[in-house]
Amino acid sequence: MKRSSLDIMIWMKIMLDKIMKMLFVSLLLCLVSCTHVQKKENLRDDIAQMIVFACDGTTAEKGSDFERLLSQHPFAGVILFDTRPGFPNRNIETPEGLKALTARLQQIAGDNKLLIAVDQEGGKVARLRSQLGFLKHPTPSEFNLLSKEQKSIAAGRLVKELKSYGINLNLAPLVDVNRNPRNFINKKGRTFSALNKEVVESASQFIEEHHKIGLLTSIKHFPGHGSSHGDSHHGMVDVTETWHENELEPYRQLIKKGKVDIVMSAHIFQRKLDPKYPATLSNKIITGILREQLNYQGVVISDDLKMKAIKGRYDSKEAIALMINAGIDLLLISQSNYEEITQTIKIIEELVAEGKVSKESIRESADRVRALKESL
């Protein structure tokens, strides 16, 4: 029996309705899937904004760890170290090489402007060392003895050198108070003074010279490392019996003055402040004291996660969870590689999936870092 024209039209309409429903369902599934991927990518981008890392190499050629990482994720930044006996594969070898490296790093990062950091305190802690062809600068203790005009000249000279080589973040100055002259920091002349007033005055002028030409600084080591008898590079340091509350005063005053870009935490125990965790892992110290008591709302960076004070006592996943929940915004990871940094991102994703770290805290930290980078 032949179908009538009406039957054919009805059949075609039914088929068209089925096709439209299938297309709608497919589109809906695609949108759900794309949204899931986008959320995952957004989380991963926020996590990358919480990491400052170091890799070996004086260049960032194609296929290097630097190139692979920076082309895949929008990291907060990198930290560079000087080559020296025993460490020939680090980053800073010659003035010309450093300038080329920083330019290349920013080129790879593209629209994601990088924080390119060094420790350039002056004296023995200088990544741009005079032995490599850079300028020589006074130690902080020597700097403190200069007149106001001389301080401006000395700090200005250091800052202009950093900027000329593409550095935009100096992990200095120390505002540790020299309460123990035999302390490993103080013996190297790394602290300004034993007097809070002088620490604040010298640190303020050092920071001001950076700000004049658009460079960022990080004061350290919160809540104060100047009274310690040990070195957190080699193990946990307990300052319970030596630390004094007046070591917070430089932080309090510099925060009030609006001078602070970043605060770096210390891997030190002060059991009266937190009986369980060192400062870098302590919510009581980072959030309770720094953010709530001292009213600091800016970026907080950890001291190096590779120091034995942390690495020697805590599993990586546990340490990272504690740091983020303590209120740390930037995780500083020295002498790492592609696999280690990629694994760090995966660890934080796992912590979120397990409910041990919140997406909100990661987003807040990433937003703080992005705002800081905008100030450049």
Molecular structure report:
Helix content is about 45%, strand content about 10%. It is an alpha/beta fold. An 8-stranded parallel β-sheet has the order 11-9-7-6-3-2-1-12. α5 (about 150-165) packs across α7 and α9 runs parallel beside α11. The longest helix is centred in the first third of the chain and has 44 residues, at about 5-50. The protein is globular and about 105 Å long. Residues about 30-35 have low confidence and may be disordered.
Oligomer: single chain
The helicity comes to: 40-55%
Secondary-structure element pattern, one letter each: HEHEHEEEHHEHHEEHEEHEHHEHH
Shape: globular
Which strand order does the major sheet show? 11-9-7-6-3-2-1-12
Main sheet characteristics: 8 strands, parallel
The radius of gyration over CA amounts to 25 Å
Task: Tell me the fraction of residues in β-strands, as a range.
Answer: 5-15%
User: Helix tally?
Assistant: 13
Distance between the termini: 80 Å
Q: Uncertain segments of ≥5 residues (pLDDT<50)? A: 31-37
State the secondary-structure class: alpha/beta
Mean residue pLDDT: 91
Per DSSP E runs of 2 or more residues, the count of β-strands stands at: 12
Task: Give a topology summary.
Blueprint: H1 5-48, E1 51-55, H2 65-72, E2 77-79, H3 95-109, E3 115-118, E4 120-122, E5 125-126, H4 140-144, H5 148-164, E6 169-170, H6 184-187, H7 196-212, E7 216-222, E8 237-238, H8 249-256, E9 262-265, E10 268-269, H9 283-293, E11 299-301, H10 308-311, H11 316-326, E12 331-336, H12 338-353, H13 359-374
Parallel strand pairs: 1-2, 1-12, 2-3, 3-6, 6-7, 7-9, 8-10, 9-11
Antiparallel strand pairs: 4-5
Helix pairs in contact: 1-13, 5-7, 7-8, 9-11, 11-12
